[in-house]
Amino acid sequence: MAMREIRVVGDPVLRTPCEPITDIDARVRSLVDDLLETVDEEGRAGLAANQIGVSLRAFSWNIDDEIGYVLNPRIVAQSEDEFQDGDEGCLSVPGLWFPTTRAWYARVEGIDVDGKPVVVEGEELMARCLQHECDHLDGKLYLDRLEKGVRRKAMKAVREQL
């Protein structure tokens, strides 16, 4: 296991859709260990594999004292009439938080390292995390979801940080 360095905005790996995991081998097991160790730090809610430079569909979470992971996650359900619009941040966009609209509830399905089905669901912060991490795996950042005026302000702040 290793605490891995977080890739930041501007790194092309963050804009590249991740590949599905087809073989669960020692490399994937090591990736899961690294995701779990790296997310297990104060203030970290979730971590996608591409945020540590690995273009595979996997992420970990650290919400309400529960740490977990899922391989090949896909959102299978989310609330269509209840939303949240609180501030959202990202380890790959350090220090910046902007109001981001997300579904109030989300459900993700995938597998674990034994190939067994995994279902993760939640409301509020957990739902936000599930949606945020699945976006990462699709090569998207939360900045892409911001309303036009807020996005302009966010991109200016990002440029000032680089």
From TrEMBL:
**Name used for this protein in its record:** Peptide deformylase
Q: How, per the record, is the cofactor bound? A: Binds 1 Fe(2+) ion.
Cofactors needed by this protein, per the record, are:
Fe(2+)
Q: What is its EC number?
A: 3.5.1.88
Q: Which organism is it from?
A: Georgenia alba
| Active site residues of this protein | 133
Under the heading InterPro entries, the entry gives: Peptide_deformylase, Peptide_deformylase_sf
Q: Cite the CDD domains for this sequence.
A: Pep_deformylase
- Describe the reaction catalysed, as an equation: N-terminal N-formyl-L-methionyl-[peptide] + H2O = N-terminal L-methionyl-[peptide] + formate
Q: Does the keyword Hydrolase apply?
A: yes
Does the keyword field hold Protein biosynthesis? yes
